[in-house]
Amino acid sequence: MGNLFTIGLFQQMLRSATPVALAAQGGLMTEHAGIMNIGMDGMILIGAFTAVSVSWLLGSAWLGLLAAVLTGVLVGLFFALFVVKFKSDEFIIGTALNIFAGGLTVFLLRALFQVKGSFQGTADRPVVGLPRVDLGVLREMPFFGPLLDNSSIFILLTWILVLLMWILVYRTPWGLWIRAAGERPDALRTAGISPQKMKWISSVVCGAFCGLAGAQLALGNVTMFAEGMSNSRGYVAFACVIFGAANPGKAYLAALMFGFFDALGYRLQEYNINSNLTSMMPYVITVIMMVYVVVRSQKKRGKSLA
After folding, report:
1. What digits encode the pLDDT tens for the residues 224-248?
2. Looking at CB atoms within 10 Å, which of 100, 160, 239, 268 has the fewest?
3. d(Cα 10, Cα 232) in Å, to the nearest integer?
């Protein structure tokens, strides 16, 4: 057990959890606004491709990150156009978005870079990754020093973003309006504020966070793009939102739980356990998590009716 639960395990946990946590911070905005956004997986994938492409072309990870966020905003606007403006079924639009993103990124990967499977740049011009944390003398701290030193900077920035999102959702008028757009749209309309406007804003914010998650996945965890590299993380992020009751802090903790079992699955492969079995582990936990939420909500509903 001592060889299993090492610093490396927790480092991998943070790497796996961070993209999911970032997407979940955007997903909770649409959830509060009354939109079930299952299109986050496609948003993450498009953000990852954009980040790698721009980072390679311009030689700057920060420009790649910015491009991924802007692309996420555009995709969020596209999603809101159909869901909010045209009142289309959000489940169908989200599913279509995920399928479209998978096909589009594969096509662009082969059309622009003439490669199949993955792209890591060229020998003379590699993909530039996001900067790493240098703790300096603080790396000597027990546990946290080796845990965070040389990690992606967005592992730390995600903690700040989670705090800012909690303040936005629960301590600002904008957060109140977005929550009211999903819970009490008529009351919000009576107050002179458009629920549709809040839904548009929440979709844009969700797209931006998913673009950020894609950039972290492709430039922070690794420095490459691979076909389908989102690997259902958008669905996991949605599950984290539901499990955490759309609370930023709780959603982050749910993402950490996913990251822990994902990292544990990788570590168990070293003990000659079948990789297909270990790779299933975090997703099985996610399904169990969703079942728990459904059972809990049904029990609460039964008690309230009684």
Report:
1. 999 999 989 999 999 999 989 999 9
2. 160
3. 21
Q: What are phi and psi of 286, to 5 degrees?
A: -65, -40
Residue with tokens 């994938």: 45
Q: Tokens 């596209």 — which residue?
A: 78
CA-CA-CA-CA dihedral for 31, 45, 64, 206, to nearest 10: -10
For residue 233 the two structure tokens come to 């993380």
Residues 95-101, mean pLDDT to the nearest whole number: 96
Distance CA 256, CA 8 (A): 15
* C-alpha dihedral, 28 to 32 to 33 to 38, nearest 10°: 40
For residues 93, 40, 206, 88, the Cα torsion angle rounded to the nearest 10 degrees is: 10
The rounded distance, in Å, linking the Cα atoms of 208 and 69 is 5
Question: In which residue are the tokens 């609370």 written?
Answer: 247
pTM of model > 0.90: yes
State whether residue 34 is helix, strand or coil: coil
Given this model, what pLDDT does residue 1 score? 53
| Contact indicator for 97, 43 with CB cutoff of 8 Å | yes
| Average of per-residue pLDDT values in the chain | 91
